[in-house]
Amino acid sequence: MAATPSLAWKASKAATAAAFGVLAAACAGAAHAATVVVDVQDAAGKPLADAIVFLESAEARRQVRPQPGVDMAQEARKFVPGVLVVPVGTEVRFPNRDTVRHHVYSFSPAKKFELKLYTGTPANPVVFDRPGVVVLGCNIHDAMVGWILVVDTPHYARSAAGSGRVQIDNVPPGHYTLRTWHERLPVGAPPLEQPLSVPASGTGNAQVRLTGLQP
What we know:
Elements: H1 7-31, E1 34-41, E2 52-56, H2 58-62, E3 70-71, E4 73-75, E5 78-80, E6 83-87, E7 90-93, E8 102-108, E9 111-118, E10 126-128, E11 132-138, E12 145-151, E13 156-158, E14 165-171, E15 174-181, E16 192-198, E17 203-209
Parallel strand pairs: 1-17, 3-7, 6-12
Antiparallel strand pairs: 1-14, 2-13, 2-15, 4-5, 7-10, 8-9, 8-11, 11-12, 15-16
């Protein structure tokens, strides 16, 4: 009479089956995703660096997760980085690495807040819970300007210097709104938008020309 398999062996077999299931699901997901390549140009048709390109859809909004460990620092009386891109719900710290105090604020509709005169790092980070462009300033140093672009999608990237090209990998197929924003757009100007259909595999291509950029 054959011996009855042990409980440990059964548990091991079940775990192995579950692992194969997860792997199969991941492979299936990877098989149904594409790379999106966007060439961004200025009004003269020249490649434009540092444009932020992001893909929005109802499904993309459901996939958004906050990004951990994000800083918008102040160094040499500048915001560093000058432009920060974060998904909705992200907490951002504002460490002051200068020897002088700063007074950081924003009056932007997407996020209004104020960090009064301080050094070091404020105890509470700022939660950016609405999509949009947030313009930062300092009440003490008028020349300090920075931007936080809050996006409602996990699919975003910055155009490269020289080529103006953006590559966003692992984008599920579907119909998206492709939005493009640059810090040289007039304050309050919305990102440029255009429709984009992403295939189930391969590459989806688009070209964007941003006009009305400030010097």
